[in-house]
Amino acid sequence: MLDKTIDLDDKYDLSEDRIFVTGTQALVRLALMQQSSDAAAGLDTAGFVTGYRGSPLGGVDQAFAHAKGIIGPAGITIHPAVNEDIAATSVLGTQQINLFDQASRDGVFAMWYGKGPGVDRSGDAFRHGNLAGSARHGGVLVLAGDDHTCKSSTTSHQSEYALMDAMESTAKSGAIMQPFRFLTKISAPDAIARTWCAACHRAPEFGFAA
Fold first, then answer.
1. Exposure string over 84-112, b if 16+ CB within 10 A, otherwise e
2. Of 53, 91, 117, 183, which is most buried by a Cβ count within 10 Å?
3. Structural domain includes residue 2
4. Pairing outcome for strands 76-78 and 107-115
5. What are the pLDDT digits (tens) for 23-47?
6. What CATH number corresponds to the domain at position 85?
7. Segment (H or E) for 121
8. Which helix (H) or strand (E) is 200 found in, with range?
9. What pTM did the predictor assign?
10. How far apart are CA 119 and CA 149, in angstroms?
11. What are the tens digits of pLDDT across the range 176-198?
Protein backbone atom coordinates (compact mmCIF):
# COMPACT_ATOMS: atom_id res chain seq x y z
CA MET A 1 0.00 0.00 0.00
CA LEU A 2 1.24 3.47 -0.89
CA ASP A 3 2.08 5.27 2.35
CA LYS A 4 1.91 8.80 1.04
CA THR A 5 -0.53 11.68 0.94
CA ILE A 6 -1.14 12.76 -2.64
CA ASP A 7 -1.62 16.44 -3.40
CA LEU A 8 -2.31 18.19 -6.71
CA ASP A 9 0.64 20.50 -6.06
CA ASP A 10 3.11 17.60 -5.84
CA LYS A 11 4.03 18.29 -9.47
CA TYR A 12 5.59 21.57 -8.34
CA ASP A 13 7.48 20.06 -5.41
CA LEU A 14 11.05 19.89 -6.68
CA SER A 15 11.89 17.21 -4.13
CA GLU A 16 9.53 14.86 -5.96
CA ASP A 17 11.33 12.85 -8.63
CA ARG A 18 8.21 11.18 -10.04
CA ILE A 19 5.28 13.38 -11.00
CA PHE A 20 2.18 13.43 -13.18
CA VAL A 21 2.18 16.65 -15.19
CA THR A 22 0.76 18.14 -18.38
CA GLY A 23 2.83 20.12 -20.87
CA THR A 24 1.74 23.52 -19.59
CA GLN A 25 2.26 22.48 -15.98
CA ALA A 26 5.73 21.27 -16.94
CA LEU A 27 6.59 24.84 -17.94
CA VAL A 28 5.61 26.05 -14.46
CA ARG A 29 7.89 23.43 -12.92
CA LEU A 30 10.66 24.42 -15.32
CA ALA A 31 10.51 28.02 -14.08
CA LEU A 32 10.66 26.81 -10.49
CA MET A 33 13.62 24.60 -11.37
CA GLN A 34 15.46 27.56 -12.86
CA GLN A 35 14.88 29.67 -9.75
CA SER A 36 16.04 26.81 -7.54
CA SER A 37 19.14 26.31 -9.68
CA ASP A 38 19.99 30.01 -9.45
CA ALA A 39 19.50 30.01 -5.68
CA ALA A 40 21.81 27.01 -5.34
CA ALA A 41 24.41 29.02 -7.25
CA GLY A 42 24.07 31.87 -4.75
CA LEU A 43 22.03 34.10 -7.09
CA ASP A 44 18.95 36.13 -6.21
CA THR A 45 16.95 36.02 -9.44
CA ALA A 46 13.34 36.56 -10.44
CA GLY A 47 11.21 35.06 -13.20
CA PHE A 48 8.98 36.86 -15.71
CA VAL A 49 6.47 34.99 -17.86
CA THR A 50 4.46 36.76 -20.55
CA GLY A 51 2.77 36.13 -23.86
CA TYR A 52 -0.58 36.03 -25.62
CA ARG A 53 -3.53 33.79 -24.76
CA GLY A 54 -3.67 32.10 -28.12
CA SER A 55 -4.20 28.46 -29.05
CA PRO A 56 -2.30 26.13 -28.90
CA LEU A 57 -0.55 27.73 -25.92
CA GLY A 58 -3.73 29.07 -24.39
CA GLY A 59 -3.32 27.16 -21.15
CA VAL A 60 0.08 28.51 -20.14
CA ASP A 61 -1.24 31.62 -18.39
CA GLN A 62 -3.88 29.53 -16.61
CA ALA A 63 -1.31 27.01 -15.39
CA PHE A 64 0.87 29.77 -13.95
CA ALA A 65 -2.14 31.56 -12.47
CA HIS A 66 -3.31 28.39 -10.74
CA ALA A 67 0.17 28.01 -9.23
CA LYS A 68 0.32 31.64 -8.09
CA GLY A 69 0.69 30.66 -4.45
CA ILE A 70 3.79 28.66 -5.36
CA ILE A 71 5.47 30.80 -7.99
CA GLY A 72 4.89 34.05 -6.07
CA PRO A 73 7.19 33.21 -3.14
CA ALA A 74 9.75 32.02 -5.70
CA GLY A 75 9.78 35.48 -7.29
CA ILE A 76 8.12 34.38 -10.54
CA THR A 77 5.54 36.71 -12.12
CA ILE A 78 2.99 35.85 -14.83
CA HIS A 79 1.78 38.85 -16.84
CA PRO A 80 -0.22 38.07 -20.03
CA ALA A 81 0.18 40.82 -22.63
CA VAL A 82 -2.22 42.56 -25.01
CA ASN A 83 -0.33 41.04 -27.94
CA GLU A 84 2.77 39.01 -28.64
CA ASP A 85 5.17 41.75 -29.70
CA ILE A 86 4.45 43.82 -26.59
CA ALA A 87 5.20 40.68 -24.58
CA ALA A 88 8.46 40.14 -26.48
CA THR A 89 9.47 43.77 -25.94
CA SER A 90 8.77 43.37 -22.21
CA VAL A 91 11.01 40.32 -22.15
CA LEU A 92 13.74 42.34 -23.88
CA GLY A 93 13.49 44.86 -21.04
CA THR A 94 14.01 42.23 -18.37
CA GLN A 95 17.46 41.52 -19.78
CA GLN A 96 18.62 45.11 -19.27
CA ILE A 97 18.78 44.77 -15.49
CA ASN A 98 22.56 45.13 -15.57
CA LEU A 99 22.17 48.70 -16.88
CA PHE A 100 20.81 49.92 -13.55
CA ASP A 101 22.84 50.20 -10.36
CA GLN A 102 19.69 50.14 -8.22
CA ALA A 103 18.54 46.73 -9.47
CA SER A 104 17.18 44.65 -6.59
CA ARG A 105 17.93 41.28 -8.24
CA ASP A 106 20.98 39.65 -9.72
CA GLY A 107 19.03 38.80 -12.86
CA VAL A 108 15.69 37.89 -14.41
CA PHE A 109 14.96 34.73 -16.38
CA ALA A 110 12.09 35.25 -18.79
CA MET A 111 9.66 33.08 -20.73
CA TRP A 112 7.65 34.19 -23.78
CA TYR A 113 4.77 32.12 -25.18
CA GLY A 114 2.67 32.50 -28.30
CA LYS A 115 1.54 30.84 -31.51
CA GLY A 116 2.65 31.12 -35.13
CA PRO A 117 1.17 34.55 -35.97
CA GLY A 118 2.65 35.87 -32.73
CA VAL A 119 6.09 34.71 -33.81
CA ASP A 120 5.58 36.48 -37.14
CA ARG A 121 4.57 39.81 -35.63
CA SER A 122 7.29 39.69 -32.93
CA GLY A 123 10.20 39.34 -35.33
CA ASP A 124 11.64 42.80 -34.67
CA ALA A 125 11.61 42.36 -30.89
CA PHE A 126 13.05 38.85 -31.22
CA ARG A 127 15.87 39.99 -33.49
CA HIS A 128 16.86 43.03 -31.43
CA GLY A 129 16.50 41.17 -28.15
CA ASN A 130 18.65 38.31 -29.39
CA LEU A 131 21.30 40.64 -30.79
CA ALA A 132 21.37 42.55 -27.50
CA GLY A 133 21.68 39.23 -25.69
CA SER A 134 20.46 38.19 -22.28
CA ALA A 135 21.76 39.47 -18.96
CA ARG A 136 24.68 37.72 -17.27
CA HIS A 137 22.38 36.08 -14.73
CA GLY A 138 19.24 36.17 -16.84
CA GLY A 139 18.09 34.24 -19.86
CA VAL A 140 15.19 34.09 -22.31
CA LEU A 141 13.13 31.13 -23.41
CA VAL A 142 10.77 31.60 -26.37
CA LEU A 143 7.95 29.04 -26.60
CA ALA A 144 6.19 28.79 -29.95
CA GLY A 145 3.08 26.63 -30.14
CA ASP A 146 2.52 25.74 -33.77
CA ASP A 147 -0.80 24.83 -35.37
CA HIS A 148 0.51 22.73 -38.24
CA THR A 149 -2.91 21.50 -39.32
CA CYS A 150 -4.53 24.95 -39.14
CA LYS A 151 -7.10 23.61 -36.68
CA SER A 152 -7.77 26.91 -34.93
CA SER A 153 -5.78 29.41 -37.02
CA THR A 154 -6.22 31.27 -40.28
CA THR A 155 -2.98 29.73 -41.61
CA SER A 156 -0.81 26.77 -40.67
CA HIS A 157 2.55 27.43 -39.03
CA GLN A 158 6.05 26.14 -38.66
CA SER A 159 7.91 28.71 -36.58
CA GLU A 160 11.42 27.31 -36.79
CA TYR A 161 12.24 29.32 -39.91
CA ALA A 162 11.18 32.66 -38.41
CA LEU A 163 13.06 31.93 -35.19
CA MET A 164 16.20 30.89 -37.04
CA ASP A 165 15.90 34.08 -39.10
CA ALA A 166 16.08 35.99 -35.81
CA MET A 167 19.21 33.89 -35.10
CA GLU A 168 17.71 32.30 -32.00
CA SER A 169 18.90 28.86 -30.91
CA THR A 170 15.93 26.66 -31.79
CA ALA A 171 14.87 23.18 -30.75
CA LYS A 172 11.75 21.09 -31.16
CA SER A 173 10.30 19.23 -28.18
CA GLY A 174 8.40 16.03 -28.86
CA ALA A 175 7.83 14.84 -25.30
CA ILE A 176 7.09 16.40 -21.93
CA MET A 177 10.48 15.58 -20.39
CA GLN A 178 12.55 17.01 -23.24
CA PRO A 179 12.25 20.64 -22.10
CA PHE A 180 13.70 19.65 -18.71
CA ARG A 181 16.66 17.86 -20.28
CA PHE A 182 17.35 20.49 -22.92
CA LEU A 183 16.25 23.83 -21.51
CA THR A 184 17.90 23.45 -18.13
CA LYS A 185 21.18 23.17 -20.03
CA ILE A 186 20.73 26.14 -22.37
CA SER A 187 19.44 28.39 -19.59
CA ALA A 188 22.31 27.69 -17.19
CA PRO A 189 23.60 30.88 -15.50
CA ASP A 190 27.16 30.25 -16.64
CA ALA A 191 26.27 29.76 -20.32
CA ILE A 192 28.83 31.37 -22.60
CA ALA A 193 26.49 32.42 -25.41
CA ARG A 194 23.93 34.87 -24.01
CA THR A 195 21.45 34.41 -26.85
CA TRP A 196 17.71 33.90 -26.66
CA CYS A 197 16.64 30.27 -26.92
CA ALA A 198 13.47 28.98 -28.57
CA ALA A 199 11.49 25.76 -28.48
CA CYS A 200 8.72 24.83 -30.92
CA HIS A 201 5.89 22.53 -29.90
CA ARG A 202 3.06 20.85 -31.72
CA ALA A 203 -0.07 20.96 -29.57
CA PRO A 204 -0.97 17.23 -29.33
CA GLU A 205 2.58 16.23 -28.43
CA PHE A 206 2.92 18.54 -25.50
CA GLY A 207 -0.50 18.65 -23.95
CA PHE A 208 -1.32 22.20 -24.94
CA ALA A 209 -5.03 22.91 -25.24
CA ALA A 210 -6.91 25.50 -27.20
1. bbbbbbbbbebbebeeeeeeebbbbbbbb
2. 91
3. no
4. unpaired
5. 888 889 999 999 998 999 999 999 9
6. 3.40.50.970
7. helix 116-121
8. strand 197-202
9. 0.85
10. 17
11. 555 555 555 545 543 545 678 88
